[in-house]
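subagent[fold] <- orchestrator: predict structure for attached chain, return tokens only, no commentary.
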Amino acid sequence: MSAHKLAVVATVSATGTPQAAVMGIAVTPDLEIIFDTLRATRKYQNLKANPNVALVFGGEGEVTAQYEGIAEEPTSDELERCREQYFSVWPDGRDRLSWPGLTHIRIRPRWIRYSNFNQGSREIAELESPPPYNPPPRYNIGIRTP
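subagent[fold] -> orchestrator:
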């Protein structure tokens, strides 16, 4: 996932309508996803009402990752840690700090599925974090080939 700078982020509106956007993201060593957004956006309003979020990573070939997690706005030291991780991928993010209403969102993983269906490879790996959604190494990891 850290090889990707973009992911599709899906949220759910207050009326239950799915909404998705391509977002610039950073991935921490604990598989947290960090992105910035404005508090006036639909995704921010959706996440405040319902912090459940899904992401999809893709790229060349048939290698993908599906990700489900819980979103939150980090504060104090955690906010600084998340920002530094984000700025390491998106240095221009520092320029946006002056934008009114800008915030950073951290998503902690609940479930991740990696799939590689490139020619000659058929691999699926699932990572699941039991509540309260602790970061690795507490994942239950299962790898299978269909």
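orchestrator: received. Logging for downstream: Residues 76-89 form the longest helix (14 residues). The mean pLDDT is 87.
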